[in-house]
From TrEMBL, chain A:
Domain B12-binding N-terminal: 1-87
Name of this protein: Cobalamin-binding protein
Superkingdom, natural source: Bacteria
UniProt similarity note: Belongs to the methylamine corrinoid protein family.
Listed InterPro entries: Cbl-bd_cap, Cobalamin-bd, Cobalamin-bd_sf, Met_Synthase/Corrinoid, Meth_synthase_dom
Pfam families: B12-binding, B12-binding_2
GO biological process, one term: tetrahydrofolate metabolic process
Organism of this sequence: Acetobacterium bakii
CDD domains: corrinoid_protein_B12-BD
Keywords: Cobalt, Metal-binding
GO molecular function terms noted in the UniProt entry: cobalamin binding; metal ion binding; methionine synthase activity
Annotated ranges, domain B12-binding: 87-209
From TrEMBL, chain B:
GO biological process assignments: porphyrin-containing compound biosynthetic process
Protein name: Uroporphyrinogen-III decarboxylase
Domain Uroporphyrinogen decarboxylase (URO-D): 53-289
Domain of life assignment: Bacteria
Organism: Acetobacterium bakii
Family annotation (Pfam families): URO-D
InterPro entries: Methanogen_methyltrans, UROD/MetE-like_sf, Uroporphyrinogen_deCOase
Length: 209, 321
């Protein structure tokens, strides 16, 4: 098996302890950092698809994301200043009045694994803070708003409306969460909607390309 | 039949006279859990976890963990002395006006095995631990089951309940958090002991799991659960009611992510949703309505709501079987 394939398989299987060494071996064998990163991004796409189709569950997706981050740790010093593989920065948060973070965290991991730099605002995020973060950070191409509660759906609407009214350009808005439907996402003016973390990564890439 | 007689007829697989709803069927008791599991008004629980009150209930303070590596749990988890919790006093207060001849006494036991571990170390750490260090998880679950069982025995002694509702949310809206195989291998052995501790005392076991958990309903039935709550519509409720008729009562049915659960839903929408539940699920005789009706102050069942009166009135018009 090639070193690159080994990296891919280790990420997919969530083998955190082995990925770092495998990435180093791939580098030693002559692979370029960007190439290895792309291989890991591809692996996470497979993981996302398997999650969306119900073939794997949250733990398997989490350990795969953890494994990829170990691999990225090895590549990071070699890729400083190299943004060729980056899809930009994604600002993410759970909307005001909602303290749930698991869905938001899973989506954050998967979007990061797809090639974004993440700025995580946490939970209970006022609408204007999404705008503020988008203005304060470089190359923000995506804002992701999460809401788990039916009671905070109005806050989701307010967040999207505030972002759209702020005049931010070149930045798309994606929403999700248990009560959110594609119809609701369209109604409040979001650019995209995803039903789960795996499809969020796919939709995120689609929106910024 | 009164509520109690009707309920036991359903439980035995006989045809009930009417479809019950949890507001009129149960005296739901939570004061024991306030002391043993999670404080009703938020703050520190007996293990030192800080709970935050939200509109839909309580949750552990986000990103504040007691430990992050399951292998360390013994260094951080100190089980409280069950004698010191004051469960008997809680029962005395809560049962003061209960007419046991009419209704069902249902004692809640929240924060089950999975939720307790998540309260200690967060969801992500918990979920990773289930597959990365299942042995330590099993060890924790067995130890926590011992505590739960001690509390449940106290609940049973003090409340003499008809039903114990054990709450453990193992699923998201899309499916189980973990695979059925992981649940069966890591969580179920301790879960089974909890179920048996309740059923061996002649008390009905109600399993509360929100989300799409239909893949492990067979496990719940096999272990001895007689009621599944809060059966959400992401599951095949009609299929489950058909399959387990005479074995399992399905409590739920409300579209908790739909318009009737939105803030500001009209009385008409709420009434229409309750009628839909009666028509769609009630005919089998093994359904209990569990509405999820929210307003600005929280869950209507606990904080009150002007829409509840018309909803119950409308329910009485469609509940007869």
């Amino acid at each position: 098996m090639s070193k690159m394939n080994e990296v891919k398989e280790l990420v997919e299987a969530g083998k955190s302890k082995k990925v770092g060494a495998a990435v180093q071996e791939a580098l030693d064998a002559g692979s370029q950092p960007a190439e290895i990163l792309q291989a890991m991004v591809d692996s996470m796409s497979v993981v996302g698809e398997k999650f969306s189709s119900g073939e794997i569950f949250v733990p398997e997706m989490l350990i795969a994301a953890k494994a990829m981050s170990k691999g990225v740790d090895v590549l990071r010093p070699l890729m400083a200043g190299d943004n060729t593989a980056s899809l930009g920065t994604c600002v993410i948060g759970t909307v005001a009045g909602d303290l749930h973070d698991i869905g938001k965290n899973l989506v954050s991991m998967m979007i990061e694994s797809a090639g974004f730099t993440m700025v995580d605002l946490g939970v209970d995020v006022p609408a204007e803070n999404f705008v503020k973060a988008a203005k304060e950070n470089d190359n923000v191409t995506l804002i992701a708003c999460s809401g788990l509660l039916t009671t905070t759906m109005p806050a989701l609407k307010e967040a999207v409306e505030t972002i759209k009214a702020s005049g931010l350009s070149g930045c798309k808005v994606i929403v999700g969460g248990a009560p959110v439907t594609p119809e609701f996402a369209a109604e409040i003016g979001a650019d995209g909607y995803a039903a789960d973390a795996g499809s969020a990564a796919v939709k995120a890439k689609e929106l910024v390309k | 039949m009164n509520q109690r007689e009707n309920f036991f007829a359903m439980l035995e697989g006989k045809k009930p006279e009417f479809i019950p709803n949890i507001m009129e069927l149960y005296k739901i008791c939570v004061f024991g859990a306030d002391r043993a599991d999670q404080p009703l008004i938020g703050g520190l629980d007996v293990f030192g976890v800080n709970w935050i009150v939200t509109k839909e209930g309580e949750m552990p303070e986000p990103n504040k963990f007691l430990f992050e590596d399951i292998a360390d749990w013994k260094d951080y988890v100190k089980f409280p002395d069950v004698d010191s919790l004051g469960i008997e006093e809680a029962a005395k207060i809560e049962l003061a006006d209960v007419n046991r001849d009419e209704i069902i006494v249902n004692v809640y036991s929240p924060t089950g095995l999975f939720e307790r571990l998540a309260a200690f170390m967060g969801f992500e750490n918990t979920l990773c631990s289930l597959v990365e260090d299942p042995d330590s998880c099993r060890e924790f679950f067995e130890a926590f089951a011992n505590y739960k069982i001690a509390c449940l025995n106290r609940f049973i002694d003090a409340y003499q309940p008809d039903v114990i509702t054990y709450l453990d949310d193992l699923a998201t809206a899309n499916g189980l958090f973990m695979s059925p195989a992981v649940y069966r291998s890591v969580i179920k052995p301790a879960h089974q002991r909890i179920v048996e501790a309740v059923t061996s005392r002649g008390v009905i076991f109600c399993q509360h799991t929100c989300g799409k958990c239909e893949k492990i309903i067979e496990d719940y039935v096999e272990m001895g659960a007689k009621i599944w709550s809060s059966a959400q519509i992401s599951n095949d409720l009609e299929g489950i009611m058909d399959k387990y008729h005479g074995q399992l009562l399905v409590e739920g049915g409300w579209d908790s992510s739909g318009p009737a659960s939105y803030i500001g839903a009209s009385t008409e929408e709420v009434v229409a949703e309750s009628i839909r539940c009666a028509k769609q699920y009630g005919k089998n005789g093994n359904f209990i309505l569990f509405p999820t009706l929210l307003n600005e102050n929280g869950n209507s069942l606990f904080v009150g709501d002007s829409r509840l009166g018309p909803m119950i009135e409308a329910w009485h018009g469609v509940e007869k079987l």
